[in-house]
């Protein structure tokens, strides 16, 4: 499963000693070919971690033969030394794997910002991981990239003769552009890097870019798509793009379902917007409203906080034509009191908010989480 | 003190029964002249409460003879009936006060969005409040506008022969444009409404517009400045503007100090920005970063979260030239590890974050609060 569900890939996940608690912290994913086509999407944060700066350069070549991922440290805001460490990581992997060049090895890191990685543990870890590479190593790799994730996250879609699989980690600092995550997708479809790039961007735009757990954008977000061509099959673009989007959608939903401290997953659907951009802007504004997030946590269908969030946007709408449903009860109609709020049943983890802008026919879905005392505790009790 | 510190004003604060718990909930401020010049600044939220829509119209005339304020209900998202109720409130006050027209009576409300006000209690309350109007009623008025505020907030500056005083309420939904607040300022200076308007806008831009407790913008924000001319003195503009700004600054600082659930007041100063707009954009981005707000609550000088917030802005800066100090310890230099974070003492309520963009000479100060389990509790345990 995971990154080894597609043919042509091996992976490993080990404990290299980067994490003080001894948990797995180093993953290696290797594309055994015959192709090494790849595409990548990275954080839009202007403060980018060293591995992001490195991997962006690697991806410009359109080829990735291996990915080294570590948890236990983000290697962000670590200056020239941090970049040298990422470079050394790629060089080490190239040396250990043989026949690969460092320029085709992507690196991804996640953990605390502002601390150098323990290279005396990481580099030997790469040697160890290389000895454990296996066509069944996908799950171990997915486990090794966890930080505050409570479960590891994998997804697979198999089509006629080819497969797209992947793994993801991400639990906090989840906001669009991208959400804080490391994701590696693999496929044995026989496609070039330009096709992979288009499919990946089409997919992330509608999936990872539309989850917003806590409004915070990471320095390390990395989503990679690697193609081995090992199936010998070249699917039609539309079918392939659908499969990539399905895997991304599945993983994105898992990220929301495991967000730090969350007790609710909130599906915000904005309908009848004048444009998709308007729908996304309104959805994100609702997703980031702390007061609403608290109300949802308290199972309070406080639609006034939805309207106050919509009112901060530049989207086209008339305040007295707005309608809002919570779990399908239209508690706000025409900008005012609608159905009885006591009809709203909010006992379950998933909460659906529908915002009708009555301004057009575009729509968008944004996923968010509630704001809880557990979130505060997880992010205040220790550095992460 | 408060709104009755300046000559020419009377005020009252009573319990009209709008709040179920019987606490004071209705305030009346009357300008006895000889002048009735006034200026107002209102929420930039596009979803505006009925009293905001009403008072915006009143202020267009440049004259206000009285203000009716209620807590216990925002009268926001209440449709045509809500607006009729505000209108009826002004008419009732005009009738009771005699000699005043409803078109010169401003109305302000605060409380839960989406519920109609109990007019059967509010209208008799106006009659009762009118009988209690007093030149010493300022404090009672300040108490009557409290919602989740733990203390009432007043400030006064007295100059040579004239005074500016005021009251404020606001504890949650505090974000720029404006913060969630009702504020009434009064002065006995003899000035016209155009001068008042300029002084008020100059002051709010640098004070109320730069506090951001929880990133949430209200539907009801109202800041009014009323001048009676009773001192017979016309101060120079600069001196008057300074006094108004000092009173606003004092009240804004009190709002942050009493924000819902907060345990820290965070003073974010952005320096060496290319422009004041850049400095404000960066300051607000830092102010709204939930992960950083949690870290500050945990007394963790997590400067990586400051950098990740700066990185989401469009301000001019180079990531490897950013410097960040927390309580004057430069924990981040040149975008990387700086002085030892263990040197940062965060035991006190006030925390100072300095972000040096190394891109120019402009600066701005934004005030924020930390994010706490108490904030979550206050905003999830019941509707507000």
TrEMBL record, chains A, B:
The lineage of its organism: Bacteria, Bacillati, Actinomycetota, Actinomycetes, Kitasatosporales. It comes from Streptomyces pratisoli. Keywords: Acyltransferase, Transferase. The keyword Acyltransferase applies. It comes from the Bacteria. This is Bifunctional glutamate N-acetyltransferase/amino-acid acetyltransferase ArgJ. Its EC number is 2.3.1.1, 2.3.1.35.
